[in-house]
Amino acid sequence: MGVDRTPRIVGVAWGLLVLNTLGSTGAETIVPLPRSLIQMVTMGSLAAAFVLALAVNPRVRVRPSAYLFLLTLLLVPSVIASANLESGFGALFRCGRLALFVATLWLLSRWWDGGPTFVRYHIRAYVVVLCSVAAGALASPGAALPELYGGRLVGALWPLTPPQIGQYAAVITGLTVLLALGRRTDRRSALLVIVPALVLLALTHTRTATLGMFVGLGLAIGSLVLTSAAARRFFGWTVLCATVAAVGFGPLLQAWFLRGQSEENFTSLTGRAKVWDALLAAPRTTSEYLFGAGLGDKSFGGLPIDNSWLAVYHEQGATGVTLVAAFVAVLGGVALLRPPSLSRACALFLISYCAIASYTEAGLGDASPYLLHLAVAASLLVAPAPGAHRPAPDAPRRPVPRWARRSEVV
Fold this sequence. Notes:
Elements: H1 8-20, H2 35-56, H3 66-73, H4 75-82, H5 89-108, H6 117-139, H7 141-144, H8 162-181, H9 187-204, H10 207-222, H11 229-248, H12 250-258, H13 263-267, H14 272-281, H15 286-291, E1 299-300, E2 303-304, H16 308-337, H17 342-357, H18 369-380
Helix pairs in contact: 1-2, 1-6, 2-5, 3-16, 4-5, 6-8, 8-9, 8-10, 8-17, 10-17, 16-17, 17-18
């Protein structure tokens, strides 16, 4: 199957998928938005994304993808567990949402060609989201930095939590840095994205996103060091700046990292460890162990689980954990086997970021930004189809003298 030129409507559909994964809960906004209205917008965006993807791909031509295949298999334990209605009818609704989400990704996979097209879609969509966050902070600083969240930045126009904003800022910062190193964007455009995103990331005080960004960039740039002089220079300057910052601003960085928490609260990961211990100690039937309790709101005992692996174990059982581990391992293995390139570096960044964030954030087992990040990584790891390479341009011809243009040969 040859590679078609990507229609603009594909980018619109991707933006609608991003809108769907923003969620409906978070901080109080400047203009109160009913949760039912937010849910209608997010679910409507998913339906619209599916319709647009089907309209632009009516023959349902898809690319083979181990990631999407395993993600499709994840629907099996989700439906089996949700059919018991242990989590209510909402579980079946979430299964339908996940099925529509995966189906839309399958339709859009036709344009996965190993290039940075979907990276650009990803950056543009989240730049719009972060612009709304910045606009809310300028319009009402008190609502954007509420005491309820310890003065951390939240969404004042759309209900977004600090971890969400930190995740979006970290991901687009890392991807933009890599595009700039690969000379796929100019320096001015890159700075217009990176600088504001880093400011928003700092205001969220999100440790997981910050750590994931630095580790992901380290792995991604490290994969380019042997083949890119720009990557070597950037890596050297980054190490130098990090060393100076650690020495000169050590106490300030430590205060930012601790966020005023006590040592006990910090070591228990802000209370997450207690929820995890209770979840693992809870009795389970054989069916619940294998297939989970059904898709829910990623909570246990009324408290958020905040761990992708335990959330999947609780809702989709050991079968779900195996499938999630399989598609993360497959993406990581394929990325490591690819020759050094910008696409491989971006994929490594996204995969490593999601792997790190999975320890304190849920989302790998349901429609979420993390599945979109991994979908972008999968699009970058697609091997070009045979015949997809453009033919080399013809060598310039030498000018023919006027006397040689005669039709007769003397």
